[in-house]
Amino acid sequence: MRSEEQEPILLLTSYSLLLTSHLSLLIFPLTIFLLTARCLQLTAFPGFLLPLPSVLALLCLSATVVLAQQPPPATAGAPDTSDFRRLLLSTPNDFRTGSGAPGLRYWQQRADYVIRASLDTVSRSVRGTERITYSNNSPDTLRYLWLQLDQNLFTRESRGAAIFDRGARFGTAGAEGGVRLAKVAEPAQSAGGKATARALPLKYLVNGTMMRIDLARPLPPRSKQLLDIEWSFPFGPNSNRMGMEEIDGGVIYETAQWYPRLAVYDDVRGWNTEQYYGQGEFYLEYGNFDVRLTVPANMIVAASGVLRNPLEVLTAGQRRRLARARTSDSTVIIRGKAEIADPSSRPPAPHGTLTWHFVADSVRDFAWAAARHFIWDAVGVNRGKTLAMSFYPPSADSIWNQASQYAKTAIENYSQQWTPYPYPAASNVNGIEGGMEYPMIVFCHNRTDPQALYSVTDHEFGHAWFPMLVGSNERLYGWMDEGFNSFMNHYNFPKKFPGAPLPTARGVPETYLRNALSGTEQPIMTPADRMKTTENWRQGLYNKPALGLVLLREHITSPERFDPVFREYIRRWANKHPTPADFFRTMEDGLGEDLSWFWRSWFYTTEQLDQAVDSVVFSDSAGIASRVYLRNAGGMPMPLELSLAMDDGTTQSLSLPVEIWFAGATYTALIPGPKRVRSVTIDPKGWYPDVRRENNHWPAGATSSSKAVRSEK
User: Fold this and answer.
1) How many CB atoms lie within 10 A of CB 706?
2) Which of 92, 171, 389, 655 is most buried, with most CB under 10 Å away?
3) Is there a single domain that holds both residue 516 and residue 658?
């Protein structure tokens, strides 16, 4: 038994313990008051004591009230691992905004080319000279420039030759070519007819398919650099995006990646100097091209851009037909099969050659093809704004006589659904390359199957929007052109062939699921050259991103919401260089959704969608007749569709948003009575690519499982 004199000491001890319990500072004044009052009572008013337990109770109650108003403490060192955490993207700035639009200070470089080249059909080689005007629109001073020498892929020492089998789609076929550089210089400068600076050879260093040119003087912001380059390269046995094909007694030359061209210097990475290995495609600056191609006089040339000298290279009859074709909805033959052997189908050429002059404005590349035995036809597109043309050998006539109509169909459909085709010409060439795209010209090989020819034509002309108009970095993010294009193809192919199966890489869930279940799938974000298998490349660049956009358009949002935002992305980034972050932000900005969960799981990982229904519980409480227990078994969050068969024979549909997975991998759907759920089916219409359909049903199999059903009161 303690004395009253001991109570102040005990109270002070209690006070010390309270101080060390980390209560809010708001309790401190109340604590002082109560303890002081107790001490005064002990000494001056012993008959009016406030019992000690009451004092402590008041303190505890005060602490409880104050602490209840404080936010829960964060767990130190525990990162947010939720599937719904905000996706970390590059920090917005004056160049690229948080909304996904180019910023007020966005800039990009420009490269204009004047090229003079000739085709030697004896040595089967191309020789050329070019003058490049490089505009430095960046805020940086540049002391060297990087150029791409893509033809250096075709040597036995190239890195691409070491990576890809020589006989594979992107192999070198054992070619021993490469670029021969005869001149790299800064041209002489003059003003008012007087020389102001003499021509200067420039020091350069070739590193595989890249060349660094050291400038004679630093190139400050808002200034230009002129370069003169002379070069040549041989055609070889390779057919990787270009090459020769001997057919019908002649040779078709398809010429691409053929001239030294500027690498991209941008605000994201500075110089983009990834090597060309053969599988990853391109990242190029926009500019104007003025190109003159000298070829044997009996040849027809197709090229990027618009022909500027038809009087010199076409007959009067061909010029009349070409003018008529522009406003015609029916295909017009410019030079027919019967004219190929007729010398009068070519204009006179005293020196045995003709020079074809083409110009292309605001494009990122230039390609061309030539053959002496081309059939050439054309048709008007978009009410004459564009001229679609096809060039093919005689043996392809039975199928390729429809190729210009295929081009017209594809281009007009895309122009109506997304944004108008931006170029005055669209040429399709039948040669050795299976399918490849360039500004205003594509190469397509198929000669046997109308559906296959339409499919490749549709796909290659779809590239006019991605990456020709929207100039993403294909070498790092191939899905931003191949995937977006395949997404557009997903809707366009059925318009031409309704009821026919979609081509395998046009947003098809079945081929995606096979790859996902193979155990070898790689994330979409993997660069093309690092895809381990051809199927991974096909799925990661083409099919899976296309399928993802189909899901986003049709099921996660809606066409009414998606389509205007996708058009806005095209508008914002036309003739510019978007990154994945710019696309993700633009879509979120226009859709009004945080889609971090979708971008992360679908584009950055190989998580799988596996939605399951585990059981149904019957209940009579609170008017809830059935509780459906659902589980996200695969890790990938996704909205959930349910079909509920009720005990009165009716069926109910229930759409649950992706947010049901906020709290974790399980969710209970409460189904009000008085009806009870007799069976459950997840995703009854097969909208989503679920890797395991057998757990999409309850009860499993044909009969109910007694273990899965229970009742509760």
Assistant:
1) 8
2) 389
3) no
Claim to verify: residue 278 and residue 181 sit in the same structural domain: yes
Nearest one of 280, 153, 256, 262 to 212, comparing CA atoms: 262
Q: CB-based contacts of 9: which residues, under 8 Å, 6+ apart?
A: none
pLDDT in tens, 662-708: 999 999 999 998 999 999 999 999 999 999 999 999 998 633 333 33
Instruction: Give the confidence band of 514 by pLDDT, cuts at 50, 70, 90.
Output: very high
Q: Burial of 461 by CB count in 10 Å (0-12 exposed, 13-18 middle, 19+ buried)?
A: buried
- What the block records as the tokens of 489 is 């193809």
Map 504-565 to HEC letters: CCCCCHHHHHHHHCCCCCCCCCCCHHHCCCHHHHHHHHHHHHHHHHHHHHHHHCCHHHHHHH
**φ/ψ of residue 570, rounded to 5:** -60, -45
Q: How is residue 663 annotated by DSSP? A: T
Our CA angle for 569, 572, 578, nearest 5°, is: 75
| Rounded-to-integer distance, Cα 92 and Cα 472, Å | 18
Q: Which residues contact 688 (CB under 8 A, 6 or more apart)?
A: 551, 555, 609, 611, 638, 639, 641
Across 651-712, the runs of DSSP E, i.e. the strands, are: 651-656, 666-672, 677-682, 697-698, 709-712
Residue 150 and residue 257 in contact, taking contact as beta carbons nearer than 8 Å: yes
492 pLDDT above the threshold of 60: yes
Domain that holds residue 26: 4-68
Residue type, 88: L
- What token pair was written down for 493? 């192919």
Phi, psi for 145 (deg, rounded to 5): -120, 145
Confidence at residue 75, expressed as pLDDT on a 0 to 100 scale: 53
Residue 273 has pLDDT above 80, yes or no: yes
pLDDT category, 192, cuts 50, 70, 90? Answer: low
Q: Both 593 and 621 in a single domain?
A: no
Residues 643/628, Cβ–Cβ less than 8 Å: no
Q: How far is CA 195 from CA 56, 188, 199, 200, 677, in A?
A: 98, 7, 10, 13, 91
Question: Would you say residue 509 has pLDDT above 50?
Answer: yes
Tokens 């400068």 label which residue?
A: 189
Tell me the percentage of the chain whose pLDDT exceeds 70: 86
3-state secondary structure at position 703 = coil
Residues in contact with 536: Cβ distance below 8 Å, sequence separation at least 6, in sequence order: 515, 520, 521, 522, 526
Say which amino acid occupies 98. Answer: G
Q: What are phi and psi of 272, to 5 degrees?
A: -100, 105
Domain tally, the chain = 4
In a domain, 293, yes or no: yes
Query: Of 36, 68, 100, which marks where a domain is finished?
Result: 68
Mean pLDDT, rounded, of the chain: 89
Burial group, residue 353, by CB count within 10 angstroms (0-12, 13-18, 19+): middle
Indicate whether 228 and 183 sit together in one domain.
yes
For residues 170 and 164, is the Cβ–Cβ distance under 8 A?
yes
C-alpha angle 661/667/670, rounded to 5°?
130
Cα 316 to Cα 312, 340, 347, distances in angstroms? 10, 16, 9
- Among 13, 45, 68, give the residue marking a domain's end: 68
- On whether the CB atoms of residues 42 and 8 are closer than 8 A, the answer is yes
- What is the 8-class DSSP label of residue 337? G
Contact 112, 132 (CB under 8 A): yes
pTM for the structure as a whole: 0.87
H or E, element range at 416:
helix 403-417
- 257 in the same domain as 119: yes
Whether the Cβ atoms of residue 163 and residue 225 lie closer than 8 Å to each other: no
**Residue carrying the six token digits 């590239």:** 463
With CA atoms as reference, report the closest residue to 671 among 641, 623, 618, 626: 626
pLDDT of 576-602, one tens digit each?
A: 999 999 999 999 999 999 999 999 999
